[in-house]
Structure of Cell division ATP-binding protein FtsE:
Amino acid sequence: MIVFDQVQKSYQVKGQAIPALQPTSMTIETGEIFGIVGHSGAGKSTLVRLINLLEPPTSGRILIDDENITDYSPAELRAFRRKVGMIFQHFNLLSSKTVADNIAFPMKLAGIYSQQEIRDRVDELLKRVSLADQASKYPSQLSGGQKQRVGIARALACRPTILLCDEATSALDPQTTQSVLRLLADINKELGLTIVLITHEMDVVRRVCDRVAVMDAGEVVEMGKVSDVFLHPKHPTTRDFVFESEHIDHEDMQRDLAKAKGRILRLTFRGESTYTPLLGSVARESGVDFSILSGRIDHIKDTPYGQLTLSLVGGDLDLAMNALKAADVHVEVLR
Ligand SMILES: Nc1ncnc2c1ncn2[C@@H]1O[C@H](COP(=O)(O)OP(=O)(O)OP(=O)(O)O)[C@@H](O)[C@H]1O
């Protein structure tokens, strides 16, 4: 478990304090995939670099598994950092070393593993990231997705309990992003590893994260389960991220809604209710006529969800709304 207790960070530049993280308290649970989403300069990298103390906090405490890492001696800090793996947007591989040597590098650096242990671990990791046939290639001979797989294998070499991912898929095309995210999700499940994933794309959060913190100007402005934050965003920054990921133009949407007749509702279906044929029976029972203004069915991690924006005319609206709520549909009145 990672606990931030009133952690604040300012950088000193030419004698001036540049605030990067406002006092922040939060908990990242062991074994979860925790997303941190925010625009450029929001403070995401700062927050993640505090977790492995690449940056010391200006004030506040950081506890990992109940130990205050801000109190660690240099030797304790070195041992702790082996337990925290990191992957980067531009992979940061050593171009003069082969794939196998890149993966072996942190183990050699640690100086506590035998040659045999290193060889066995590298073989195991090469298989885990599906690169067993690329061991003697150099980074320049690999695709972006393959490079990131090497980055992941290298980050796992010393068997960390925490994996930090700094925009790990931002340089990859959508299909490669999907396969790297799937690999991270599998590793999380198999190894019970805690993953903290920084991104500026809500879609990445939707695909793999359990919980998310949304950052804006050095502040966590919204935090919660991805299903809650994604389907019912409260803060304007969160809403912008969700609209962007759904390719919704807010002004176009408002114009379309203005043209629609009657009441406008947004219905959110989660899990099994996504597939329940509900609207027809509610329309028949309540006498309300529906017209669909927009709709989407997708997944949040492994759970299906659907969102429909409807205009409703005539009939017994209260009866219709109650029937929808009774079927576990979240009903939001937009107008
Ligand atoms: N080493 C540093 N020295 C001075 N200021 C810094 C340093 N690192 C970051 N900052 C400042 O702190 C603020 C937060 O930066 P940070 O890199 O954490 O944001 P970010 O959300 O990760 O942005 P990006 O997505 O562009 O990396 C910014 O105003 C940035 O200019």
Residues 144 and 172 are 6 Å apart (CA to CA). Residues 248-333 form a domain with the Alpha-Beta Plaits fold (CATH 3.30.70.260). Residues 11, 13, 18, 20, 38, 40-46, 200 surround adenosine-5'-triphosphate (CB under 6 Å).
